Amino acid sequence: MKILITGGTTFVSKYAAEYFVTKGNDVTVINRGSRPQINGVTHIKCDRMNLGNLLNGAHFDLILDITAYTEEHIKALLDSGVSFVDYIFISSSAVYPETNRQPFSEDQPCGHNAVWGDYGMNKLNAERYLQERVPSVYILRPPYFYGIYENLYREAFPFDCAIQNRTFYLPQNGEMKLQFFNVSDLCRLIEILTDKHPDDHIFNVGNKELVTVKQWVELCYQAAGKTPEFVYMDKSVPQRDYFCFYDYEYALDVSKQSELMPDTVPLEKGLKEEFEWYIHNPKSVYHRKPYMEYIDNHLVKKS
């Protein structure tokens, strides 16, 4: 396929660019050129909000839109003069209000989520605008992505704790549940969508299985060959000061995805792959949060 990917230099878009190049596709990426490009791509250096005539008259089999966060981002790309066969938009599970019945399903009403705020509403408005302009669009709503090229200080935090043989501080009883989706599974699903063109056009995506935060940390330590010791913190301690997830538990119904792609990467395997990548690329993780400093300065004596 001839594919246009928005982004291409960090995490999900970087992995996707490399994945589809490796599969023999003709991949073009749009980004500002502030970081190295994946080998084998055609690079259009610009901000997506200032495309000018760079895409005018260009045609692609697939636009894979990973970096659109607002309606304006979508409009700028669609008004650029580009044409395409398929358009896949990576949206977010933040479009579901936290008050909805769980697990969230694609047929539920969408709207403001108090945890995610403007981010969720901006994604939802982008979805709605895109559906008006491109009725055939496929919209994917993921939970937490993980995998190679992760640039947030998420898995890297327990990885670092394991490497340093640190005790891990968990919120409350450690039973808050999380849902994940490996970036490699995202790319496999995209291939299936462009091949089969299912009648459904909105898909929740993710692993069927949820894990508790305690299980997740144990798997991260296991990837490093370690076993964690835990200290449990009560709600009086702000969770985001010492832990890498918000105090928000939710689940997505991924049965529609499972009909197309029954299997996903086991979390244990995916975390092991991410750890092996991380120990050789620690500087790829940006915006490291001072969780350890907070723990050392405020929690160690309390525990």
At a glance:
This protein has helices at 11-22, 71-78, 118-133, 156-163, 183-196, 213-223, 239-242, 255-260, 267-278, 291-299, and strands at residues 2-6, 26-31, 42-45, 59-65, 83-90, 138-141, 144-146, 168-171, 177-178, 180-182, 202-204, 211-212, 230-233.
Textual characterization of the structure:
The structure is a single chain. With about 300 residues, this protein is α/β, with parallel strands linked by helices. It has helices spanning about 10-20, 70-80, 120-135, 155-165, 185-195, 215-225, 240, 255-260, 265-280, 290-300; strands at about 1-5, 25-30, 40-45, 60-65, 85-90, 140, 145, 170, 175-180, 180, 200-205, 210, 230-235. The chain has two domains: about 1-145 and about 180-205, NAD(P)-binding Rossmann-like Domain (Rossmann fold); about 155-180 and about 210-250 and about 265-300, UDP-galactose 4-epimerase, domain 1. It is about 35% helix and about 20% strand. It is globular. The mean pLDDT is about 95.
What labels would you give this structure?
303 residues; alpha/beta; UDP-galactose 4-epimerase, domain 1; 2 domains; two-stranded parallel sheet; 33% helix
The total count of helices amounts to: 10
Percent strand equals 15-25%
Number of domains: 2
Number of strands: 13
Mean pLDDT: 97
The CATH topology label of the largest domain is Rossmann fold
The largest pleated sheet is described as: 7 strands, parallel
Estimated radius of gyration: 20 Å
What's the end-to-end separation, in Å?
56 Å
| Coarse morphology | globular
> Poorly predicted ranges (pLDDT <50, ≥5 residues)?
none
Superfamily at the CATH H level of the largest domain? Answer: NAD(P)-binding Rossmann-like Domain
Helix and strand pattern: EHEEEHEHEEHEEEHEEHEHHHH
> By helix and strand content, what is the structural category?
alpha/beta
Helix content: 25-40%
Write the CATH architecture name of the largest domain.
3-Layer(aba) Sandwich
CATH class of the largest domain: Alpha Beta
Major sheet: order of its strands?
3-2-1-4-5-6-11
